[in-house]
Amino acid sequence: MSSRSDIPNRLIYTCNCGWIDIGHLVSVEKPANRHASASYLWKDVSLERGLQVAGRPDHHLVMYRQGMRKFGLSRDFTKFYFIRKGLPLATQRSVALAIFKEVSMGFEDVQASLSAFTDSGFSEEDLVSNLLGFYVAVLGNVDWRNHCKPVSAEASRVVWDTLGPVGSRKNRQFVPKLHACEECKTKHHITQPQFPPIFSSIRPAQQGADFFEATEATPGLPVPVHMLSTLFV
């Protein structure tokens, strides 16, 4: 749940990427967020460090989750995927993005079901901020500020005051909603904002030979799906 007081330390308006939650761009690897950050997911995929499952020597099993802890509530959305070993880098990136997007959407659905407690579900900045954080983690040399063009705290507050809280305007896509901001013209000389192409440079893979979700119907699982998380430490 974002508030006006989050500007500018956590929330900022940008000319080309709309509202951005800066906290979503920081993918710190700590025990508390293991299996729950873009960096962990990417290393699981790229380093092939998922679990080895008997009967599937050509694949490794990864877990990815997103969660929340607010108002005494604890909710998460978790999925498990088999990923084929030996994939080229470009394919690994596509697989990681597909997993990341699917879990991001699932978690936003979870938050949306808690609308009596929070307006965070599909808040305008969430999915776009997630996506930028993924690209920063995977490509490693992305200067999101240079691409997105943040405006000042004062200009961000004008956008907020004109349109209202970001949580009241839902966005179910990984592309931003862009709004009028005078500073985009005067400071950044942007008259026609455009979502930076770099943030659509990876195409998400389709489930199939390269990766697929582990479900109750998947043969050879060591334990039922609802117990798989106990195998990850």
Describe the structure.
37% of the residues are buried. Helix content is 29%, strand content 15%. The two termini are 29 Å apart. It contains six helices and five strands, in the order E-E-H-E-E-H-H-H-H-H-E. Helix 1 (38-46) packs antiparallel against helix 2 (89-112) and helix 2 runs antiparallel to helix 3. The longest helix has 24 residues, at 89-112. A three-stranded antiparallel beta sheet has the order 3-4-5. Strands 1-2 form a two-stranded antiparallel ribbon. It has one domain (4-231). The protein is an alpha+beta fold.
Topology:
Layout: E1 11-14, E2 18-21, H1 38-46, E3 59-70, E4 73-84, H2 89-112, H3 126-139, H4 144-148, H5 153-163, H6 182-186, E5 211-213
Antiparallel strand pairs: 1-2, 3-4, 4-5
Helix pairs in contact: 1-2, 2-3
Tally of contiguous helical segments: 6
Radius of gyration, CA atoms, in whole angstroms: 19 Å
Structural class per helix/strand content? alpha+beta
Mean pLDDT: 91
Biggest sheet strand line-up: 3-4-5
Give the uncertain stretches in residue-range form: none
Domain tally? 1
**Main sheet summary:** 3 strands, antiparallel
What is the number of E strands? 5
Shape: globular
Which percent band covers the strand fraction? 15-25%
Instruction: Determine the fraction of residues in helical runs and give it as a percent range.
Output: 25-40%
| Topology order in helix (H) and strand (E) letters | EEHEEHHHHHE
Distance between the termini: 29 Å
